[in-house]
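Revision sheet: structure tokens.
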Amino acid sequence: MMEALQFDFMQHALRAGILVSFAAGFIGSLIVVNRMVFLAG
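Predicted:
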């Protein structure tokens, strides 16, 4: 795993993945709390 992080694009991909996971968790929580299930598909 650490060898892969030597590459610049892998560092960017990891940061983007972490950011997307936090955003998806936050938006998913809002959808459930506000009972907007129709937005989830």
